[in-house]
Write a structure and sequence with these properties.
six-stranded antiparallel beta sheet; 16 strands; 446 residues; 14 helices; eight-stranded mixed beta sheet; globular; alpha/beta
Length: 446
């Protein structure tokens, strides 16, 4: 007869095996093979800008300027819905489209191909998955040099948006260049994890909250530390934007070897948003008197209601209709994420994590980053010094904005004017990681 202890052990093994198998069953997301812009504030539907020749959309008779109104009977009513539906399409599964061309309604069915996976010369690329405590399987992408033995590693924690961390073919933004250089020039294992509902991951990013995101990052770090080719004592966390604020928290919990924060903040999200709104009003050329009036009458009540009183934007506006003219967020979302994300973030002690950091810290902030303030970054250095931390660097990169682009002024970045790329942007991160890992740094051009 099997003992109770033995039975429980077998059940546990079965559950763990089930979780592993479940995590391996992520289907590959599909490629539209077209450039498509999401819904605007004036019109629903996603507009096709261009279509690849001989692609499924072209063969189905669709054309540029056609407006996709529905996917599988779901109305594309907002950017959040478009992101959810677009990421949710899987290769090999037909989808039904309802398209508007002029005044004509067109219905079609298409079968989209898989997005091509990353490839890097001389580097092995592994598409795997982890399952968080919330039961969501999330895509991980691990790149590793082709050599034996345990190697130093970087875990990348991205920003808050629902954009992918995959450097798929054709992606050439400055952020994609940072990803590419990190993979190809660090000579280290690099792990990335897609958020719930992004890339091949399960879930819906537009509904996923802050705690769910953090759980996915923790599951990825646990998996990375267990890899036989990774030196668990030489794992560095590199965080970008929101990920930069999470980096010290994760370093403390998992005893990581170093922290690299790129475009970070320190204060609560309530304070952070008020600072952003004030900067935006200055960029718009308002007088300081008018800025004070709008902050007191509109923006402070708006964010206090959302972040402190835990209401949706729509609830706050319904109670105070004068705010509707000044609120540019969706009824229940900010920057594509649900208000619950920011309400949880408001109560999270991210600043306190900096007080506990013992490992080397490297912080980069662009001087034209109008999203994150210089003062926040200097506050972090003050806190580290106050607590006896010895190995920290704050580098304010000349002209850099929040999106890895060089601009003449912060206002140029705010207005979306073209900027420029410099290889030193990514190499600053790469060399910091190599330095902390005990590798030699790579010479860069001045």
């Amino acid at each position: 007869m099997i003992s109770k202890k033995s039975f429980l052990f077998q059940v546990l093994c079965f559950l763990l095996l089930g979780a592993v198998l479940h995590a391996q069953k992520l289907d590959r997301r599909a490629s539209w093979q077209a450039k498509i812009s999401g819904p605007s504030s004036e019109q629903i539907g996603a507009v096709i800008q261009s279509i690849t020749e001989n692609s499924p959309l072209e063969k189905a008779g669709l054309r540029p300027q056609d407006r996709i109104l529905k996917i599988d009977e779901v109305l594309i009513s907002s950017d959040e819905v478009w992101t959810e539906m677009s990421y949710g399409i899987r290769a090999g599964s037909p989808i039904k489209l309802e398209v508007l061309r002029g005044g004509q309604l067109i219905r079609s069915s298409v079968l989209l191909p898989a997005i091509k996976k990353e490839q890097h010369a001389g580097i092995e690329t592994l598409y795997e998955a982890v399952t968080s405590v919330y039961g969501l399987s999330q895509r991980t992408i691990i790149t590793k040099p082709k050599r034996p033995g345990r190697q130093a590693a970087i875990i990348l924690i991205g920003g808050l948006s629902c954009s992918s961390i995959e450097n798929y073919p054709g992606r050439n933004s400055n952020w994609a260049k940072v990803l590419r250089d990190l993979v190809e020039k660090s000579d280290m294992v690099v792990m990335r994890v897609e958020k719930p509902g992004v890339g091949d991951s399960e879930g819906d990013c537009s509904r996923s909250d802050f705690r769910t995101d953090v759980a996915g990052f923790k599951a990825a770090i646990s998996a990375l530390k267990s890899k036989p080719y990774v030196d668990p004592d030489r794992i560095i966390v590199y965080g970008s934007s929101m990920g930069s604020a999470l980096a010290p928290l994760l370093a403390n919990e998992f005893n990581l070897a170093g922290v690299i924060s790129d475009g970070t903040f320190f204060k609560t999200w309530y304070e952070h948003m008020l600072e952003i709104e004030r900067r935006i009003l200055q960029f718009k050329g308002l007088s300081e008197t008018e800025i004070v009036r709008q902050m007191n009458r509109y923006y402070i009540p708006l964010y206090y209601g959302m972040l402190i009183q835990k209401k949706t934007y729509q609830q706050v506006v319904d109670e105070y209709p004068a705010l509707s003219e000044y609120n540019y967020h969706a009824p229940g979302h900010m920057y594509g994420r649900p208000v619950a994300y920011y309400q949880q973030l408001q109560d999270f002690d991210l600043a306190g994590a900096w007080e506990k950091v013992k490992v080397p810290v490297r912080i980069m902030r662009g001087t034209n980053d109008w999203i994150m303030s210089s003062f926040d970054n200097k506050m972090i250095i003050e806190v580290l010094k106050r607590n006896g931390h010895q190995d920290h660097v704050l580098y304010e990169y000349p002209g850099l904005d929040h999106w890895n682009t060089i601009h003449q002024t912060a206002k140029d970045s705010f207005e979306g004017n073209p900027g420029k790329w410099e290889e030193n942007i990514s190499m600053q991160i790469v060399n910091w990681a190599r330095e902390i890992a005990g590798l030699s740094t790579i010479p860069v051009q001045n």
